[in-house]
Amino acid sequence: MKKLQAFFNELLDKEEIEVSPFQRLGRKRKAQVMKETYDGPRYLHKEEFLKIMDTEVPETLRENTRKVEIETPILKFALEIIKKYNFSFPLLNYAGGENGYNVKIRPTII
Question: How far apart are CA 61 and CA 69, in angstroms?
């Protein structure tokens, strides 16, 4: 069986076949599936931003500026963390990058 698999791998290397029966995806399909694509950044130019800021908004479309306090329930687990750290969470200071944040949050939730 290993000799047969080696034979198909050699055919794949020479690009004589696209899919090997020993692989779930062919090389072209795997490259296509594994390719990462990102959208372009979303932004406004200075002129566009200034135009938006200078635009007059009718009273009926303006946001309600009344300040209404909303109560949000806290889970017991979250309340224990708040009490433990007395609203002073060390993980918010100097958390460099995603891994830095992940390393700092572990002691907080354990």
Answer: 22
